[in-house]
Amino acid sequence: MVTVLDLAAAGSSSIDLVGGKALNLGVMIAAGLPVPAGFCVTTTAYRAVVGGAVDRAQISRLVLPDELCKTIVAGYRSLGADVAVAVRSSATAEDLAYASFAGQQDTYLNVVGDDDLIDAVRRCWASLWSERAVSYRAAQGIDPRTVALAVVVQVMVDARVAGVMFTANPVTGTRHQSVVDASPGLGEAVVSGAVNPDHFVIDRSTGAVVEQRLADPAGACLDAAELVALTRLGQQVQDLYGAPQDTEWAIGADGTLWLTQARSVTTLYPVPKPPPSELRTYLCLTLAQGLTRPITPMGLAVFRLLGSSVATAAGFPPAEAEVGPAGLHVLAGRIFVDVTPVLRQRQRRRLMLAALSVMEARAALVLRQLGERPEFSYRPETAPRALRPAVRVLLRAAAPPRFVAALASPAHARPALGRIERRLRASLVVPAGASHEERLDLVRLRLGHDIFLLMPTCFAYAAAGFASLALARRLLRGLAQPAEFQAVLRSLPHNVTTAMDLELWALAGRIRSDPASRAAVTTGEIAEVAAAYRGQQLPPVAQHGLEAFLARYGHRSVAEIDLGMPRWADDPGHLIGVLRNYLQLEDAAVDPETQFRAGERLADAAIIDLVARARQRSRLRGRVVGWALRRTRELAGLRETPKFLLVLALSAMRTQLGQIGVALQADDRVENADDVFFLDFADVRRGLAGADLRERVVGRRTAYAVELGRRRIPRLLLSDGTEPEALATLAELPDGALIGSPASVGTVTGTARVILDPSGAHLEPGEILVAPSTDPGWTPLFLTAGGLVMEMGGSNSHGAVVAREYGIPAVVGVADATHVIHTGDRITVDGASGLVTPVGLVAPE
């Protein structure tokens, strides 16, 4: 039974025996990196003494067996006579690839003597069950029964200067930058946020210091040679682990540089591998669709097939359709597309920015800024050649004649779309006797060939409406402001999504008028009502109403572009919840139907007004503007139809895959039928051929669950890891704004809560925590915080690290924040620019 292990041997042990910190220190020692000597009290000792105890106070009073005490003391004396040591926790759930657990357990410094060492070991064990550590593990979904704690004992470095170093920029994500926070003395002051450190950002590709902020204007605590040595050492650590690292370091009084910790930087967004030879820009396609959650593995497989069909239609068929086109990347379970070629060509860029300005304005703004960088400057290419792929797709979809037909007669569009929907539904029917292999082939064939063409085919009709609006705007230039045209787009007819909402509202009205149905829908748990619906046990008005609604819209759902997500027809619980909300809405003035009709009246009035202004120029101009705006009203609402039909196809394919999942479960290839959605097409083929897929499903579900916890998804990402939004700068400081150091990217506006001591503090969900500084004892408050402002600390302090992991915007190093900001103030925290801006102030108490 190994209870004490030399630190040099820990690198070849398991994390279950020595914990994450000791394992990493041992790996670095084995690689020849400068790590202070020490030993590890293993988890075997913890389990033998602590057993199943989870009470911190109880563990703090435990008496260690004599034999264990002797072994620990022997290890201590091997380091020297009465040497000062650091006693540090090393948990089995610590320094993981997806969670750093920064500072969640305790560290004790300058421990001298046998008795003090034994006491420090015991207190480290107890810290595994502190409130902050328990809360952090719960947030990460880690089973408390699986954790144990080892303890690292190392010779203290007599530090002249110490701190932390990230081998990638944790705020911007840039992989070729190292970020160093340094302060005289021990590094704990930097880690804990107790001081404002010197802050350096170094470009490792050139060696240049690209950013520097000093705590003391009189001079830095590190000279140029020490910065070079640090960044080189950081590169060695990164090369050792093959990924960016969060390190702690110290420079002794004799000038020796030591590493005291290394762990993965858990908050960086993944980048494509291997890295491309030149800088590329990736746009998050799924986020542009409003989807922040990851896509299921089968959903990703579908996107790859759709992407291949797009590339094939454009004249660039990929070598393997199931792999997807070269420009499509799956990063952290989300779909990104390489838009670099589009940025580098004038006409393509204009079209992309025009489209994004409508659907994702923030991404368009950032892309415009990126276009000013030399890496993405225009490259010679004629317009016809550049636009040829798009023209090829539009011609194959017969989009131009559909566009013209819609302009000529808007009444032609809706019947045409109806015919497209009927043909689509017919094409999705599978013969009753089809084998599971034939079902899989059908899914792949439909998704890999003709389904994509629904988008340009159907959108041609809506495009005619938006083209009409553009014509009206041009004719009214100088006579109307751009914002005035928004009224024309209010309550558009023929919008399938709006129609769906109104139908659900109408169903709520019928249920409201039927006492039995209203009682059935509003009583008990939603799951119970859903079960009653599935069992045909709801009162007739509610039962038949839901059946009719789901017959038309049951293929829709939250996150519906992911084929792996259940449809409303599978689980109507969401709809029942919406119906309950509708049934609580008694004010007729704010119901959806009333609002929709009011919007129609506003649109009609806006058209009359705009036409009158155009007539001021000429009667002909007035007639053309009236014609264009009426075409806009008739056609623009059809913009939702392409996605509606795409989702209809995805839902039908989901049904086929679901039946295959039932077969795989029956043959013991998977545990549950819906495990099929955590496989891809190649996996399913292997399963149908007899392969056991259960282990693969477990791995995929675990990775998916981890990604569900990711709070921040970049709209745009550069191939060097940089998130362009994090590079935003402001020309001048707004009135009343405070400036600090960016610590966690994002913007939030909320009510400030100034807290000086976390003990017994109360923080309402969404409030912005304003504090002098934070250590790990504060982090339970982060679970409900909407943002963070700190007076002290750097971008690598605990508060900043945990804020990034929880995905809450944070600014640190804001001078006098707890004095200038008062509880109840409305403030905006911009974690990218480092600005804290007042929105509404209250008088101080």
Can you give a write-up of this model?
The chain is built from 31 helices and 23 strands. The chain has an eight-stranded mixed beta sheet, covered by helices on one side. It has a six-stranded antiparallel beta sheet with strand order 9-8-7-6-10-11. A five-stranded antiparallel beta sheet has the order 1-2-5-3-4. Helix 19 packs antiparallel against helix 27 (641-666) and helix 20 packs antiparallel against helix 23. The chain starts with a strand and ends in a 5-residue tail after the last strand. Residues 98-103 have low confidence and may be disordered.
What would the keywords be for this entry?
single chain, 845 residues, alpha+beta, eight-stranded mixed β-sheet, six-stranded antiparallel β-sheet, 31 helices, 44% helix, 14% strand
